[in-house]
Amino acid sequence: MGQRELSHTQLFVSLRFGLVGFAPHPWLDCQPLNTRKENHVAFRLSAKGTQASLLITLCAGACACTTSSSAQTKKPNFEGAWSVEWCDKSRPHTDCGGFNLDLVQSGSALCGSYDSARVGLSQIDEGGRVSGTANGGSAVLTVESERSGGKYAVQAVLIGNQLHWKLGQTIRPADRDIDIIAIDEKLSRRQLDGELGARHAETASDCRAQGTRPSFPDSHTDYQVADIR
């Protein structure tokens, strides 16, 4: 075409179907309509500077689509420290109790530990083991208290930076002492720094030693947990 200006339609067709030495560019389909119009205005260039300008425009469009795709494919992550605090508002000077959960995730397998205490620290559960399997944003877990010997099924669902924890069926009753396990709570994610970070590293090491294998059988029908709404 020499120095003759390309029309809007010619440039668009050339871009879409690769008629000016470029492969088809499906990124055009993922641009908002208003963005396409702005790009079309930019495409009214002389043939002399077309290739350099198109290369810049195509790179920008491809980056935008890649970023959008990465955000959509981000997988739910259960790994980290989670906790809920239990306080007595009528006795503000009393120590709060709570339930603390530390999880390590490897693929769909979950492994970790918990500890807990009643309000006022009147009873303390040194905790026990947690294991299970994640499926998207939900997980089915088993919690086993080292103090009482009790073993329970739990359903956990990720909701933003919270973990909705719901205690389900008893797998093995406690036979030695009390256990203190959250029943229906929303646990908040905590920063893994300082002592909490060191503890998480220790949990991860223990899980690696165990092979991070969930203790649930392949079928979860033996231990049903009520759905969290």
Overview of this protein structure:
The protein has 229 residues and is an alpha+beta fold. It folds into two domains: 8-72; 80-210, Lipocalin, CATH 2.40.128. The protein contains four helices and eight strands; from the N terminus they run αααββββββββα. The protein has an eight-stranded antiparallel barrel with strand order 1-2-3-4-5-6-7-8. The termini are far apart. The model is unreliable at 1-48, 54-59 and 212-229 (pLDDT under 50).
CATH class of the largest domain: Mainly Beta
Number of strands: 8
Please tally the helical runs, counting DSSP H or I stretches of 4 or more residues.
4
| Uncertain spans | 1-48, 54-59, 212-229
The major pleated sheet works out as: 8 strands, antiparallel, barrel
SSE pattern: HHHEEEEEEEEH
Give the strand line-up of the largest sheet: 1-2-3-4-5-6-7-8
Mean pLDDT: 74
Distance between the termini: 64 Å
Keywords, please?
globular; disordered N terminus; eight-stranded antiparallel β-barrel; alpha+beta; 229 residues
How would you sum up this structure in a few lines?
The protein is an alpha+beta fold and 229 residues long. 26% of the residues lie in helices and 32% in strands. A hairpin with a 5-residue loop joins strand 5 (138-145) and strand 6.
Write the layout of secondary structure elements.
Blueprint: H1 8-17, H2 33-42, H3 50-72, E1 80-86, E2 97-106, E3 109-117, E4 124-135, E5 138-145, E6 151-159, E7 162-172, E8 184-190, H4 194-210
Antiparallel strand pairs: 1-2, 1-8, 2-3, 3-4, 4-5, 5-6, 6-7, 7-8
